[in-house]
Structures are given as structure tokens and as C-alpha cells.
Amino acid sequence: MTGVAVLGAGAFGTALAVALSGQGQVTLWARDLRGMRDSRENPRLPGVTLPENVILTDRLQDIGAPVVLLAVPMQQLSGFLRGAAPQLDGRALVACAKGVDLASGQGASALIEQACPAATAAILTGPSFAADIARGLPTALTLACADGARGESLQEDLSTPVLRLYRTTDVTGAELGGALKNVIAIAAGMSIGAGFGDSARAALMTRGYAEMVRLAVALGARAETLAGLAGLGDLVLTCTSDLSRNFRFGRSLGSGGPPDATATVEGVATARAVSALAAARSIDMPVTAMVAAVIDQRLTVPDAMAALLSRPLKEE
What we know:
Pathway: Membrane lipid metabolism; glycerophospholipid metabolism. By secondary structure, this protein is α/β, with parallel strands linked by helices.
């Protein structure tokens, strides 16, 4: 493995650093490392000790690795890249955030290309929880890079015996799969929180998946990408597990309880951005529209479900 750095010491970034450290030295960067230096633990990953091969730093100028994983929340990525571009341009930058930038409506690869035009932009996405990766449990992800040869090289660099990467050149499909599944996970959580049952959840997952494919294909993606790990695989995980922040957020909305204000819920901004994009392009995305309406308190969860059920009958 060539040198790898991870920027962002949240749960997912730390988990990736731990997983990749078995292949060689990994540099883990964060603005604030108080506590982690001494304890060699991240409070967001209890019970996981950072191996000696994980080097901690709060100085971007210390990042010399040619491959850099950007484990920065989606809504912070644009600003981060603008500030860090002088240190990062020209390298392979692999975005790990899932979502759509609310300000620009763009995905992570476009943000990378704008801020760091000499860099190779790639996306790492798929069904994964930080705790599973950090514990060394088997996980399969999608690595998307428009440059096929560079994508193959990154696939080799970032795969481990238990972290299996599948590659694609369909960056748009991989990005949209990872972003849109968060919106549908919120809808699934709302349904369970409101007591609508597992059958309703399955229906929302299925019709939500149809929306994901509809938008992705309209934006130039390949439908088969959404049928893989980046789309369907991630959708199944986030709609059915209590470990999913987006699912838990939706369940809180459905039950009328307060959502966890400390958790990053990328699906909130994505629902707003994608709902506006779909409306502007006349793309039918009723589940996404209802999620955005509930988040913005324009509809209640029961009203949103009633609106979906009252839509005209049609062929599947």
C-alpha cells in the first residue's frame, strides 16, 4: 500500500484509519485531537484502540501521503477544500461523505475538481458502519473514479483482507446512490416511528429505490450502479438498522420525539437539495418531496403518508 492519509477523525474516518493501518502507516488528521493523543481512542468508537501505525496530527502540512481520504461531513466539504487546496491539490482525493452540497447542489467529486483541479477525484461509498469497519468485520464498498486506471490503482491501495472494494467509473451513480439512500432511510424511520409497520417500510424502500434510479439516470448515471453496493446495498442497510443516523432521525420525527441534535444527518440537507433539483427538472420523486416537507414542517408524518397513498394508481 502506498502512503495514505485520512482527513477527519470522526467515527468513520477513524475507522478507516484503523482498518488501513494493517497495510502500512496511516496519518489521521483532525483540527482537535485533545484526548485522542493520550488515550489512543476516539470517544465515538468506544473500545477501539488506535494501532501504532496510525499517526495523529492536527497540521495539514504534515500530510505527505499521495492518497488522501476526505472523511469530512458533506456540508463542510466545500469550505474545507477551499482552505486546504494548497496542501492537497495534485493528489488522489477520495471523498467518503455521502450527500449533496446544499449550497451548490453538487456532489463531492465536483467540489474536489473545482477546488483542486490537478487532483484525481474519487468516491468511496457503500453499506458500512464505522463500528463494523473498526472491528475488522467483513465489509464491501464501491470505489468510483472516472479514470479507470487510477481507480484500479486506488482499489489495490485501499483494499484489505476484510475490506473489499469494487470499482466503477460511474462517479455520478455512486455519489447519488450514497446520497439518496439517506433520504429514503429518513422516510423508513418515519414510517416505523409512526407505527405504520414493516410492510410500509418495505414499500417505501422499494418505491424510494425507484426514485433513486429515476433521478440518477436522468443525471447521466447507469442504472446498474444503483443496483449495486452504492445504491441498493446501502439502502438496505440504512433503512433497517438502528445504527443508521438517518433512520433514527426519521424514527424520531415519526414518533414525535426530539431527534439527536449531536448526530450528523446528511439526509436532511440532501432531501432539501434533491427535492428542489427534481422539481426544477420535472422528475417525479414523491417520497423525497414528502421527506423534505416533513423536515421543513410543511406536513406531518401522517399527512405525508396519506398524500403518498392517495396518489393515482399506476403500473409499477
